[in-house]
Amino acid sequence: MIKRLILVTALLGFFSIIVRSQTFVTTAELFKRTDSSAGTGQLNVIQDPALDTLMSRYILSNKNLEEKNGFTGVEGFRIQIYNSSERNAKTESGKVRQEFMNEFPENQYPELITYLIFAEPAYWKVRVGNFRSRTEATRFFLIVSKKFKNADLVPDIINLQDLNKK
Q1: Of 71, 75, 138, the residue nearest 111 (C-alpha)
Q2: Which domains does the chain have, with CATH numbers?
Q3: pLDDT per position in the chain (166 positions), as tens?
Q4: Which of 4, 2, 162 is nearest to 72 (CA)?
């Protein structure tokens, strides 16, 4: 009986430590203003507390994604115009990328930034663009697929820095 009591106490202590270590962010903390200039008011948001929980989970999952991949990004879409694991895939991917950049110059199509990607075990990929939604990506996919027949719309982690340049 005493062993069970000690075990239950230890488990409760362990779980309470885990729960406290998770960060919880409220919506009010996210949209807090640091400047207090004259003429500004106060906004009170009345909402279900479950929304704060969902927001915290979303922020935590993005932080985990950043730690895992080593860069900041969000889920989005890119157009993949080349994918191969052949022996000469590295040189071919460079040629395809250059062909794409010649066909769609950056001054005419600033949205179509090219990325040369190496994926384990031995795949070389050329992907294009940083699109937040499938609808946004489809517009450019229709243009690109006329020239590059093997083009495909793929989900990917897109860069936030490139999106902020616009």
Answers
A1: 138
A2: 73-164 (3.30.70.1070)
A3: 888 888 888 877 776 666 555 556 666 666 666 666 666 677 777 788 788 788 777 777 767 666 665 666 778 899 999 998 888 888 998 999 999 999 888 888 888 888 988 888 888 999 999 888 899 999 999 999 999 988 999 998 887 654 445 4
A4: 162
